[in-house]
Structures are given as structure tokens and as C-alpha cells.
Amino acid sequence: MTLPKMNRVLLKLSGEVLMGDQQFGIDPAFVLELAKEVKAAKETGLEICLVIGGGNIFRGMAGAAQGMDRAQADYMGMLATVMNALAMQSALEQLGVQTRVQSAVQMDQVCEPVIRRRAERHLEKGRIVIFAAGVGAPYFTTDSGAALRAAEMNCDALLKGTSVDGVYDSDPKSNPSATRYETVSYGKVLADNLKVMDASAVALCRDNDIPIVVFSIREKGNLARVLSGEGVQTVVTDHTA
């Protein structure tokens, strides 16, 4: 499926991607490689918003499963996303890309609060805006935060860069014969519980007609290929023509 011309996109990266080959934390060298991918995409003329998960540092649901208070654990996860956002900001600015971090949890010493009109202005000036701390409330994932910011910023698509090259009918890591979809509808993703994003994020994209493009960010140059209509990807949309 050929995507329509895009002027503004939101790129959602899982926190695990920032680990590189490590088991935990942030690999600065790999973050710099990711930043080069983002810079190359920006140089095509796109306005780019970024949302990065926090699973490489702390995952709220995992903490809750081990007996922590769920709300408290989710707030800890939000702080992890701020750390990742600052790491990505540092890498992008090393490459000469002007970047602003906006956090849904206010922390004025390190970044701006989320202010939509200010974010719009940053994008108009050619800056990349990294949205951190999810939606600023517990019980919502960074997928929901990404969908919310994509809708709020009138993005043409939500690009989800993961370790997998698309959406499959079953887990390709445990089932070698799993089939990858080229396109799939929001309804099928929700009905079959396909592991794209959490249900509230998929529903928010559906209600605002925002295509979700799932691709592998680990493959060098893949972001640029996906944006140019090439590359291996799955598009979640109700417009399958």
C-alpha cells in the first residue's frame, strides 16, 4: 500500500530499542545511530514528533506485577521516558538537529511542559519535538501517549519503530510460519488482539483516521525507505485500497 504524502509524522520508538545489544539501560552509540535515522527522515522535509517508551529502564506494569502500587510504578515508568527523551535530544543535537523535549509531568529544570501551540511553533521552525512522560497519568501506556500526541498535533501517520518488521498473525519469534500483513484494519487488530499497540491507542488512531505504520527501526536506513514507500512495513488503516 502506498501511503499518501506526509508532511508531519509521529515516530514512536520502544524504549528497548535504545538498549542496542545491552540487556538494560541506554547505549549512547546506538542512540546516535537512531538519531542519524531520524535526521535523515527530517531532511526529506518532514516535520517530526517523537515519543519513546521507557521499557529499557523501568516498565510500570512489570513493577505492578511484582507487588508495587500500579500508579506509583507507572509514574516511575514516565520518569524513565524522560531520561530516554533527554538521551535522544543529546544525540540529535550532536548531529546539529534542533530539538525540544516536552514532558507531560512538569519538570522545568530539564524540559518544557507539554503545550500544544508551543510544540506547533517548534515544528514550524524546523525543530524535532520529543514528547515524554506519556499522557501524564497512570494506567496509560506510551502507545496511548503516542496516539494522543499524533492526534493532537494533526500528524499524517503514526510510525511505530520496533524490533519486528511489521504486524503478524501470531508471534514470529515463537512461530516461524507466522504471516506478516501488508495492510490490516484497525477492527481486525482489535478483534484478534494483534500485538501492535494497546487497544486504547489503536482505537484513538481509528477514531482520528491516523494510519499506524509498523516497521523495524533496527534495520539501518529502514525509516527513510518506509517514508519513501519502500521498505518492509505493515500499515494499519481502514483504507486498504
- Order of neighbouring strands in the sheet with most strands: 4-3-5-2-1-6-8-9-7
Mean pLDDT: 93
CATH class: Alpha Beta
Please tally the β strands and state the result: 9
Unreliable stretches covering 5 or more consecutive residues: none
The major beta sheet can be summarized as:
9 strands, mixed
Q: What spatial form do the alpha-carbon principal axes imply?
A: globular
Distance between the termini: 7 Å
What class would the helix/strand composition place it in? alpha/beta
CATH superfamily: Acetylglutamate kinase-like
As a whole number of angstroms, the C-alpha radius of gyration is: 17 Å
Q: Number of domains in the coordinates?
A: 1
Q: What CATH architecture would you give? A: 3-Layer(aba) Sandwich
Measured as a percent range, the helix fraction is 25-40%
Jot down its keywords.
241 residues; alpha/beta; Carbamate kinase; 9-stranded mixed β-sheet; 8 helices; 9 strands; 36% helix; 17% strand; nucleotide-binding; ATP-binding; Uridylate kinase; kinase
Provide structural commentary.
- By secondary structure, the protein is an alpha/beta fold.
- The chain has a single domain (8-236), classed as Acetylglutamate kinase-like (Carbamate kinase, 3-Layer(aba) Sandwich), CATH 3.40.1160.
- It has helices at residues 28-42, 60-65, 70-94, 116-124, 142-152, 186-191, 199-207, 222-227, and strands spanning 8-13, 47-52, 99-103, 112-113, 128-132, 157-162, 183-184, 212-216, 233-236.
- It has a 9-stranded mixed beta sheet, with helices on both faces.
- It is globular, with a radius of gyration of 17 Å.
- The model has no long low-confidence stretch (mean pLDDT 93).
- Its main location: cytoplasm.
- Homohexamer.
- ATP binds at residues 12-15, 55, 59, 162, 168, 171.
- Pfam families: AA_kinase.
